TrEMBL record, chain A:
Entry's localization field: Membrane
Protein family: Belongs to the amino acid-polyamine-organocation (APC) superfamily. Spore germination protein (SGP) (TC 2.A.3.9) family.
Keywords for this protein: Germination, Membrane, Transmembrane, Transmembrane helix, Transport
Annotated coiled-coil segments of the chain: none
Membrane topology of the entry: Multi-pass membrane protein
Protein name (database record): Endospore germination permease
Record PANTHER family: SPORE GERMINATION PROTEIN A2
TrEMBL record, chain B:
Keyword Transmembrane helix: yes
Top-level taxon in the UniProt lineage: Bacteria
Keywords for this protein: Membrane, Transmembrane, Transmembrane helix
Residues spanning the membrane: 7-26, 46-66
Name of the molecule in the record: Uncharacterized protein
Keyword Transmembrane part of the UniProt annotation: yes
Length: 371, 76
């Protein structure tokens, strides 16, 4: 294979990438609306599950250190079956990348670029992502390192400003467990475990490239926990500011919450800060899925992934637009079809099927070596 | 090879979207497929088709360069 470049990300970069990836579109779209005022409890449970899911993915990767999920698939199932499964994963990764980009395009075209065609936003964003991925994983890590202080401080400042504006009403969180535990469980399974935590499957193609692979598992799990805490924080912010009903109706609840900020007749239109946070989150998220798909193509076609960055980027930009006619359809697909028929098979069924075969294959290999 | 992968992936992704639309709207497979590909007057869908064209051209160029490189390596 013509792939002489060995790319590495430091543990800190990995932490940041996972943190931003998990926030990505989960901050934009209102998730867990069915749980109403208990959505933050559902998010807490989802975070615990998310840490477990990440632990499971790392466990698979640690069986064959230094190899990514696709290489493990080839090792376990052989060249042909392995490549077929990899191809399915490529389609899945590119499809999800397009969905995530569409989330962002909808946000942009309905908030700050109202007169700009959504196609222009999709193409422009994809150009940035293509450039970043072409330069490699290390560049993606370094870019995230530069932006993380802004993301973190802006997220905190928004909460503080909403609080100072006097829009926070803690009574909106009551009654706790008002409708019992049922709605919370409904939101967590399959909602939260597949989006955003199950999407960590894309990191099975990045974690093996961490400088200290032995500690990558712990780092990943801490990053998921940190992102979960941030999501709980934003969810409480949305609920206390908007209330459960308005939050459920809002297309972009965090943005609606930030719009409430009005201080000293001077600090206003802070929602643009949310757009900035979301923009970077989306760039990272799309890049990670895009990178995952490209890594798969690299293995299937035996060509360096950089040769395929531009054509595949064009496909994602195209799919972003044709994926749905409007935002309502996009969300309907995201709630009705994607979790059950795409997320669950690719995030859980395939890895769960892979694990026993992998353990068997490794044991068989060890026995052969001993003989 | 890059062009082939471009064509295969594009077909598979469009097929996947059409299947999902078929499932949601309970319609025939062909109807959502045509809706996806059709450029309605007044829309800006042509822009992403233009982007797709650039993608196709770049894949052809990459394939040509890889083939040329392979030929040079063989001669050496």
């Amino acid at each position: 294979m013509k792939n002489n470049l060995v790319e590495k990300v430091s543990l800190f970069q990995l932490f940041i990438l996972i943190y931003i990836f998990e926030l990505g579109s989960a901050v934009v779209v209102g998730i867990g609306g069915e749980a109403k005022q208990d959505a933050w409890i559902a998010e807490c449970i989802g975070t615990v599950c998310g840490v477990g899911i990440t632990g499971f993915y790392v466990y698979i990767l640690k069986k064959l250190p230094g190899k990514n999920l696709f290489e493990i698939l080839i090792f376990t199932f052989g060249k042909w079956i392995g490549r077929a499964v990899i191809f399915l994963y490529i389609v899945y990764f590119f499809y999800i990348a397009a969905r995530v980009l569409r989330d962002f395009c909808e946000l942009m075209s309905s908030t700050i670029f109202e007169k700009t065609p959504i196609e222009v936003i999709a193409l422009t964003m994809m150009m940035v992502i293509v450039y970043m991925i072409y330069l490699g994983l290390e560049v993606m890590g370094r870019t995230s390192e530069i932006f993380i202080p802004y993301i973190f401080s802006f997220a905190l400042i928004i909460g503080l400003l909403v609080f100072l504006t006097g829009e926070i009403e803690f009574n909106n969180l009551l009654p706790i467990f008002g409708e019992g535990f049922g709605p919370i469980l409904k939101v967590v399974f399959p909602g939260f475990i597949t989006f955003p935590y199950g999407e960590m499957i894309a990191f099975t193609l990045i974690i093996p490239y961490a400088t200290k692979f032995a500690n990558a598992g712990k780092t990943s799990m801490i990053a998921v926990l940190a992102s979960g805490i941030t999501l709980v924080y934003t969810m409480i912010l949305q609920l206390t500011t908007l209330g459960p009903e308005m939050r459920e109706r809002a297309n972009f609840p965090t943005l609606s919450a930030a719009r409430e900020i009005s201080l000293l007749d001077f600090i206003e239109r802070v929602d643009l800060v949310v757009v900035f946070i979301v923009m970077f989150g989306i760039i990272v998220k799309v890049s990670v899925f895009f990178f995952g798909g490209l890594k798969g193509l690299e293995i299937i076609f035996n060509r360096p992934y950089r040769t395929m960055v531009v054509p595949m980027g064009a496909i994602i930009a195209f799919i972003t637009i044709v994926i749905s006619e409007n935002y309502a359809e996009h969300i309907q697909e995201g709630v009705k079809v994607v979790p059950m028929y795409l997320h669950i098979p690719f995030q859980f069924l395939f890895p769960l099927t892979l694990l026993p075969f992998l353990i068997y294959k490794i044991k068989k290999q060890q026995k052969e070596k001993q003989q | 090879m890059v062009t082939i992968s471009f064509a295969i992936l594009l077909t598979c992704l469009i097929g996947l979207i059409a299947i999902i639309d078929t499932f949601i709207y309970q319609s025939s497979f062909l109807y959502p497929l045509l809706t996806i590909l059709r450029i309605n007057p007044g829309t800006n869908k042509w822009m992403v088709y233009f982007g797709l064209g650039i993608g196709l051209i770049s894949s052809l160029i990459v394939d040509y360069r890889l083939k040329k490189e392979k030929g040079l390596n063989k001669n050496n």
